[in-house]
Amino acid sequence: MYSGGIAPSSGEPSIHVNGKALEIPRDCNPETSLNDFLRDVLNLKGTKVMCREGGCGCCVVTATYKHPATEEVVSVPVNSCLCPVYSAVGWHVTTIEGIGGSGKPYHPIQERLAEHYGTQCGFCSPGFVMSMYSQLQENPKPTMQQVEHFFDGNICRCTGYRSILDGMKSFACDSNNGGCVDIEEMNKSLCAEGIAKPPTSGVIPIARGWKGQRFYNPGSLDQLLKLLKRYKDDEYQLVCGNTSAGVFKEDVLVNCYINVRNVPELHNIRLSKSGLEIGATVTLRELIDTFKEAAEKVPRLAHLDRISDHYQQVANQAVRANASWAGNLMMKHRHQDFPSDVFITLEAAKTVIKVADEQGTQDHVLTDFLRLDMRGKVIVSAKLPAISTDQHFYRSFKITPRQLNAHAYVNGAFQFAVDKRQNYRVTERPNILIGGISDKFNHAIKTENFLLNKSLLDEEVVQSALKVLESEVVPVEEATASSPEHRRQLAVNLLYKTILDIGSDAVEGAARSGGPVLTRPLQRGEQDFVEELQPAPLGQSVRKLESKAQTSGEATYVNDYPAHANELFLAYVLAPEAAIKVIGFDTEEAEKVPGYHSMLSLKDLEGKYTNNTTMPIFPPEMQTDEIFPSKLVGFAGQPVSVVLAETQWAADRAASLVDVKFDAGDEEPIVHITEALAKKSIHFKDAQRASKEDADATLAKQPVRVEGEVTVGEQIHFFIESLTASVRRTEEGFLVQAPHQWIEGVTVMLSKVLRRPRNQIRAISPRIGGGFGGKMFMVDHVIAVCAIACDITHRPCRMYLRLDTFALSGQKRPTIVAKYKAGADTDGFLRSVHWDSAVEAGYACNFITLIGREMDDSLDQAYHADTFKRDLTYMKSNKPQATAVRAPGSAPAAMLNLLMMDHMAHELRVDPIEFKRKNLYRAGQVDQHGMERADNNLGRMWDDLYKEADIEKRRSAIEKFNKENHYKKRGLDMSAISYHISYARFGPSEVDMTVHIDGSISIVHSGSEMGQGLTTKVAQAAVAQLAEFGATLDMVKTKPTDSMLLPQMDGTGGSATSELNAMAAKVAAEQIRERLLPIKENKPDAGWNELVMTAIMSGVLLKAFGTYVSQNRENKHARYSTLGVGAAEVEVDILTGEYVVLRSDIMMDIGKSLNPGVDIGQIEGAYVFGMGYYLTERTVYDSDTGRNLADGTWNYKPPQAADVPRDFRVHLLKKPGDTDSVFSTKAIGEPPLGLAATCVTAIKRAIEAFRKQQGKPDVNLTFELPLTPARVLQLCEVGAKDRQFKMFK
């Protein structure tokens, strides 16, 4: 490990952290990030790390310093994972530990986030808190709308964001809940008088790296130019925010780093009547404010207001606060296919930049700049001329796969000079910039020339211009981009939108909707529930016991544990291609990395360890999950060896330098299920399931029949805490610490791998930073490798996977292709459904067989059919084996079923909502799982939600809206889900409970706390039995799940773990209650503490072990069903394919909730998780190598706060009746996910409205999921006829 932070000595680089001045140790190198310094040198583990791309927000800290030019004290959010520690020299950095915690008053932000149920797993919470804290430094009185935008760089995988936004918006000046805080009171640890300008070092390096790299910190332009002259022929990087490292990682691995942030000449801003001059290191955030101010002060710079708005969509708050506009241009210069928003907007505004070297400065237009050799040169400034008049129009667009923090499919900037008095004649050659097309295309020159002196209200002119643009826009094929045809259509539509917007005064009302982009209303939510105490505090809505520990960063996760003495860190070496044979490794370059220790591969395992982590619960033929491949590599990204080093950074760096030697295979890798189907690449075909009645005969009799096919794509878990493990040897054997959903399974697996008895293996899981099924078996591989390395080296070993490593090597939700045939009678009743499903299992097939069967058994969801037949095949491909992801079977089944029902309604020519209502399961019917619907509430819930959500009224309003808006359409749909909950488990649920002599209570349970509130519910159940004696929740402290304390325990999954462990807690607490009753009889007036002390002093054991062995109904595969009904309303921009979910209404039957506040968070979180699955999260594979190209936040897009329903209403069914379950409660963590499928069919309704308006064929629309904006636009099929100008006056 690093040597640790020490007080600064004279002249050494130093940094202030939480008010303390610290010297940066010399063993830090120019590649060391601020995050590594905080976590590994200072041991400040509250700041988390995940993506190392600035895309998830868990690493955010606050930096305060004097501005190099203005000398004003500024505070900004910083992605510490991207910021080099030497860039932070002289900064005052505040981390989550510095603003509040248990040892001092909690900060109001920490308090309110906890109070609003804004934490679940808690791993992302410090990042959200610090993002809010940073923003309040500069804007202490934000509006609620501004607060929502604060979190465009933060991802939460658990909560669904609503609760987080509610907590944070309580600080808004227009909030009725809390209001603003005193900024000075918030910042007692910061004293502006003690903050100096960051020191500079001229042309002398302040750090040297392991390869001779040097880090410079010049303090003037002259010093910078001298350094550029010195290194012009070397590999160097100019560093301002270093945010480009999150996109183009290889760009920053150079020999020389030059920090330009402290060069005052590059920060200049000069405003005049003739224009605006901006220095090169002015950040995007500063530019947003500067452009707004300039537009207000100088009328001829009015167009800058629109550019300012556009830049709010560039990257995220932390990136914009540190990244310079010139740095963005340099990304475009190096990677000319990069869709730079800065380039297109500045070029459309006729910007000229100044470039300097040792010989002087020169002016360049941006198109010339792209061809300029920039070695030894630096952008100094830019001049934006004052060009706005009442005849000038400036518009820009950014069309993205996700609302915020996403690069564009296509972006565009348009500048027109138009004379309205001459029928909107174009008086100057316009600027038409289109990005995202190719590395050679920027200006639409032919279109620009064509439009000169033409009228924008001339139908023939406009149609011809669109044709010209269509012909000159030739997008290149790119794997991670949308299709060339989509991008061409989008470019044409953006020009059309611009023309509609410019001519809005002359356009009829309905067509005007085509000009503006979609607006997203302020997010809000409603929660409707009744507490049912059984007894209190069980059933009460109480915040999670650990919530403040999470919001203060004090909650400890496995990788937060301090490093052990002599600990080694591990990193995978991954296979570069699929279907190859590894023949060796070249480690020469890796061995040069300081701290490199060794590398382990297959040969180190042979004869001593079992090269397989598959659990013995699977049949021998399915135990195929090897640690390192012994034959052919199964998939690109498969671990083929592991590097050991003294730090995680050294291990990661060295692993990236290992050269894998291999023999190529004879066949191309199979990277999509359609290829597997075409090549008949099959693991095996499962046994057919069918109703007793003849399904074929029933189908043949039906007067209305449909058949179709649906493809639902993969999904990555994207938990914010990555896969990690720590293993060390003790006298007793191996001690494993890992975030794992089945600790007992760890001991079983490691006993097999290490060939040691299980009494030598102890596994502990303190908490999990998001699991979603991915930490049930997938983390076993990491544990096994760490254990083997520990055994070989006799040193503690730890590994924490980078996001890109996890995305490449990790298991995912499988792609599924399902063909269906369905028949209904003329009365609209579904009579027969046939399914033939193909599940992409990946290169191996074990756990997926359980998931595939669950999916197959869930295909009926909430709808009855008299007969059914289901076939299921597991396909083999060159991908990681598939695994469980939240609602593993029901999530795809809900989507498949809904689209089949939609198709059937279309064929029947009936209202889809009415058709689904008619076919809901009714009490007494038997579902395809063989379960009788004895406690069925579906019909009641449907009718209640239909009324509560004003469906009839809103559908009328939608019809009116669609008539009045030609290019914006709304749609609404409803659906229902039924989720079978199984009580057939891996083992008993167990709770070890101890009442100490001071009255405090310790609990160890067999579940894994990962945000679902399990720990809190267990505590509630225990205290409920002891409340009569005076026990309260604040007396309870839960301990990590431990295999030594809880033998043969159950795993955590299937959503039922909370209720089962709560029952075990009740059993344990009842034992203690029975032992206390005699004491209470003798001392009826004694309080809790006196009773406990008396009992213990009397020899009464106040320790109990509670177990609960759960079972399904006799001869059935489940115990009960969790039911839900949902409605979603959306708005779609027909010309771009973008959409916004305006409102979602959910009603869940979860029986008697054990904690409604926690359960509503689970409902919202599952729903938004489903929105990601169905709408935004898309993987892409290289067809040659088989590599997953969606290996980070740049190409993989989980939902963010801006993507959630703008109006999010959750109802818990009141008086649901008793349920055949413990406490009459129902599981909630996974079932609601399937209701998000209604977002897809609501979008489908909107598309259908446009197609009907345009007279397009009335067909059932089919598409592959996720339903991204690109696919929406393709379904709209906007063509030349749809861009007619008959609507003009």
Automatic annotation (TrEMBL):
Pfam families per record: Ald_Xan_dh_C, CO_deh_flav_C, FAD_binding_5, Fer2, Fer2_2, MoCoBD_1, MoCoBD_2
Residues annotated as catalytic: 1230 (proton acceptor)
Sites where the protein binds FAD: 324-328, 337, 398
Residues noted as binding Mo-molybdopterin in the record, renumbered to the chain: 741, 772, 886, 1054
Cofactors required: FAD; Mo-molybdopterin; [2Fe-2S] cluster
GO MF entry, a single one: oxidoreductase activity
InterPro entries linked to this entry: 2Fe-2S-bd, 2Fe-2S-bd_dom_sf, 2Fe-2S_ferredoxin-like_sf, 2Fe-2S_ferredoxin-type, Ald_Oxase/Xan_DH_a/b, Ald_Oxase/Xan_DH_a/b_sf, Ald_Oxase/xanthine_DH-like, AldOxase/xan_DH_MoCoBD1
Family membership noted in the UniProt record: Belongs to the xanthine dehydrogenase family.
Name this polypeptide is given: FAD-binding PCMH-type domain-containing protein
Species of provenance: Macrostomum lignano
